[in-house]
Amino acid sequence: MNFSLTEEQAAIRELARQILTDACTPERLTELEANASGDGIDRSLWAALGEAHLLGIDIDESDGGSGLGFGALCVLVEEAGRVIAPIPLVPTLICGAAAIGQFGTDAQKKKWLPGIAAGETLLSAGLQEVGRFDPTCPQTRARSDGDRWILDGEKVCVPCAKSAARILLPASLGEGRVGVFLVDPEAEGVRLEEAVANNHERQFQLSLSGVEVSADDVLGDPQTGAGIIQWVADRAQVALAALQLGVCQAAVEKTAEYTSDRKQFGRPIGTFQAVTMRIADAYVDLECMKSTLWQAIWRLEEGLPAGAESAATKWWACRGGSRVAHTAMHLHGGIGADIDYPIHRHLLWAQQIGLTLGGAGEQLARIGALHAESDTGAPADVSP
pTM of the entire structure? Predict the structure, then answer.
């Protein structure tokens, strides 16, 4: 594998950084956070990314995208993390568009993908339920009723649910089978209860009571959805790790700048050994986050098994990301706690990303289960 970006990926990084940096100023982020009546999404930025053809990076050309692959999309996600961009890249492009592109029918691709690539359509995903994160074993239930399905259950921490045209979610069909459905958030029987996450993102508890889903909104074979949802979860976790890498890289850069300018005892505090040791440890964490991330990306793009690798890079996003963000806050001293100063957002985002789609303990449990399965040839139980 090669950690160097291709020419296309480097061009994407340059263009994305220019657009994102211009749009995501501290003043703009504060404005969006203070707007209680809005959905917290920077719509003008989302439209600008669509106009620049960046939202269709991982969508096939035949469906309105550029077909540059998952790695190129992760470059965009990383750049969004650097500036704390309040846009739903992971739920819309990874959980939604990528899943439809891989498993959807021609009609589903035609209906959803061009609008996503153009920045006109948002999708979301309800992968989490109360308790342990395992989207392949949902408590939400689905039963067949002629040519439609009836869904009952609850999902939590669903991003941009009110703004999404559809919410992708798994539901149990009984007897160990799982279906994947595209649910209309405005359908009868859907109830959304809003909550604000650590990083000011609007998330929702999604309650389903007798919600009807037509056959047109079933993704893939309804009898083998566990494999589909694991495919989605693996890529979503890797994309979250890319987002976390961007968040933490920018935090370290801001910290290096601050400790170079801030003087105490007649010299920059960055020259003191205790400070340099903390920054050095943060650098090591960043390199580990980067290497595990690109190992997972490479395996996914090559079509190789990547369950353990996606869990490993998400573990580093949880633990390494937390250490880096806390180091940045600590080395900024009292000003780090000032919400008018931008560094606090990196800590809030690092905390939220670490908790999303399974924390560090759940990633270790999955890695252990996968190793046990490879040793015995039988699926391992990862129940707590």
Answer: 0.95
